[in-house]
Amino acid sequence: MASCRAIGIFDSGVGGLTVANAISLLLPNETIFYIGDTARIPYGNKSKEDIEKFSLEMTKFLLDKDCKAIVIACNTASAYALEAVRNTYPAIPVIAMEPAVKPAIEHSKTRSIGVLATLGTLKSDRYSHLKDKFGQGIQILENPCLGLVDSIEAGKWNDPETILLLETILKPMVDAQVDHIVLGCTHYPIVIPLIANIMGDSVQLVNPAPAIAKQVYRQLAERNLLCVNTDIKENSPKHTVWATGSTLSFNYLLKELLPNSELIHW
Ligand code: DGL
After folding, report:
1. What is the pLDDT of residue 2?
2. Which end of the chain is more exposed for a tag (fewer CB within 10 A), N or C?
3. For the residues 81-91, what does the mean pLDDT come to?
4. How far, in Å, are 113, 170, 189 from residue 176 at the CA level?
């Protein structure tokens, strides 16, 4: 049975809006309910127990609002809480992030790639398995980008201090001639223009959001859960976005990444 119930998406903050954006572009009929846990951001330096607890709370919030599927639009929460969310809600499709190491390696000509992700993601078993599986014979330069999520949440998308931070993070990657950089945290696509400026045109920045949107499409289609309302001009969906703490960056980013949405302080 087709369903126009909302797709529930969560992240620790505004980062998951980059995924919500890709989903809304691929599936314009769908309504999105999004929650950013800005009261407890960052997740990237929290324990597995905390991340599981927070992720289950965010999921419950969305399911209480009758969402038909959950997208964990946070690499860190995907690495530590996916199993707990799936085990707790076995009947609900749960789509999660994974650093796009495999496609970056497959397309790399220099055999040298960069991975930008949170400390939590870089330390996770999920990430280690990916490297073991696909990273043989490849130089992989990693950086936990300390402070970058905070700068992005604070709306410093083009500030000299963010540019300096990124220059420092990326210098070893420039020197090692990486030809792909995996954006392994959903916040980082927000500063793609800065990263691209430092790395130059020849380096591909791998944002997994469009691939995640395709997965959402496949999972909903398989279960007959796609919203088949075709009259999207007249019945354009109204998305709803909650933030548990600060809404600072949401106010601006929503206009760009998820227009036609209402922002509610939780
Ligand atoms: N956006 C999240 C991710 O993809 C993490 C940001 C944070 O540290 O909270 O990992």
Report:
1. 72
2. N
3. 98
4. 9, 10, 22
Please report which confidence band the pLDDT of residue 266 belongs to, taking 50, 70 and 90 as the band edges.
confident
Q: Which residues are catalytic?
A: 74, 185
CATH number of 101-206: 3.40.50.1860
Amino acid at site 143: N
Cα–Cα distance for residue pair 173/164, rounded to 1 Å: 15
Percent helix, strand and coil across the chain, each rounded to 5?
45, 15, 40
Structure pTM?
Answer: 0.96
Amino acid at 235: N
Q: Which CATH number describes the domain made up of 2-97+209-265?
A: 3.40.50.1860
Per-residue pLDDT band at 212 (split at 50, 70, 90)? very high
Evaluate: CB of 44 within 6 angstroms of ligand 1.
yes
Report yes or no: 69 and 55 within 8 Å, Cβ to Cβ. no
Whether the per-residue pLDDT at 192 is higher than 70: the answer is: yes
Nearest CA to ligand 1 atom 2: 74
Residue 261 and residue 255: Cα distance in Å, rounded? 8
The single-letter code of the amino acid at 251 is: N
Q: Residue 228 Cα, ligand 1 centroid: separation in angstroms?
A: 32
| Ligand 1 binding pocket includes 8 (Cβ within 6 Å) | no
Structure tokens at 140: 């992989």
